[in-house]
Design brief:
The protein has 120 residues and is mainly α. It has a domain of 55 residues. It has two helices and no strands. Helix 1 runs antiparallel to helix 2. The two termini are 12 Å apart.
Length: 120
């Protein structure tokens, strides 16, 4: 999920999920490789790019509010944003208490039936 203009990578650490029973024979070796990687400690984003993304891109649904043109096949979020929160928000930590999304989403990333949504 990419609902922040700063979520400009293929797979944002902490904002993705999967079904652990779908093609488990493929998922288990990927998981094991990720955990054994020398990048595994405090390097979640590079580990995702190197191990998970090449496999996930073959069967993925991505909702994107800001970078949909950069990532073809992305879908608009099906619901309108009513406040400035976003997936992966860290406002529970003092140094991020003012985090929030305050920029309008591009027209191209809005749902076809809701081009009037400024924040999506």
């Amino acid at each position: 999920m990419r609902d922040n203009a700063h979520h400009g990578v293929s797979m944002v650490a902490g904002t993705w999920g999967g079904c652990n029973t779908w093609q488990a024979s493929k998922a288990t070796p990927i998981r094991d490789s990720m955990l054994k990687s020398s990048l595994a400690w405090n390097q979640d984003q590079p580990v995702l790019w190197a191990y998970m993304w090449p496999w996930a891109i073959m069967n993925v649904t991505i909702h994107d509010s800001y970078t949909c043109l950069r990532f073809p096949g992305s879908l608009p979020f099906p619901t309108q944003r009513y406040n400035d929160t976003f997936i992966g928000m860290r406002s529970y930590r003092e140094e991020f208490k003012n985090d929030g999304v305050r920029s309008e989403c591009p027209m191209e990333c809005r749902p076809a039936q809701h081009k009037d949504w400024k924040y999506c």
